[in-house]
Amino acid sequence: SQTIHQWPATLVQPVGSPLSLECTVEGTSNPNLYWYRQAAGRGLQLLFYSVGIGQISSEVPQNLSASRPQDRQFILSSKKLLLSDSGFYLCAWSVIVNEQFFGPGTRLTVL
Amino acid sequence: QKEVEQNSGPLSVPEGAIASLNCTYSDRGSQSFFWYRQYSGKSPELIMSIYSNGDKEDGRFTAQLNKASQYVSLLIRDSQPSDSATYLCAVKGTGFQKLVFGTGTRLLVSP
Predict the structure, then answer these.
(1) What pLDDT, on a 0 to 100 scale, did the predictor assign at position A95?
(2) Distance CA A22, CA B51 (A)
């Protein structure tokens, strides 16, 4: 069966510091991968998606970036965090069908 | 106009009752519809998907789709306190497997 991991689970970072969040998927090959952010009291916002290694599509221009160095690894990064980057970051995967499955998430607080 | 709209709630029902959650969407070309359950502090969990007009039943859950009215609903029969969560409606819009999420309806089931 498929499993999706995210780490860290929680993170507290100062404004202006860098960020690296990692997501890995097990039990499937060539998945589509997604990064979402859920701000407090708000809906899920799609940030990036990837259909393959090195292929990244950005949905919202901001100070975040994403990379996919391996088939089942998806990384979300920032060079300098803003207060507005606080939120619940979710990685998701899908294959040919439309259903997306979420990882456990990383709760980021920027102070 | 929001692309996917849900009443934020909370929707309060007594244990054993039927909970009815509703969602409307704006993109007439949408073909795939999903319901996710999200417990407080946790990531969304896919509970139902529906692709054709009509009803789809899975245990205590029934999804209903009316594409002409651009309306999708989720019925939960014999509601339990453990069903208390936020329910997110998601619709596959145009473009590559992009899901558009509503902001969710909070359901409270009282013992």
Answers:
(1) 86
(2) 32
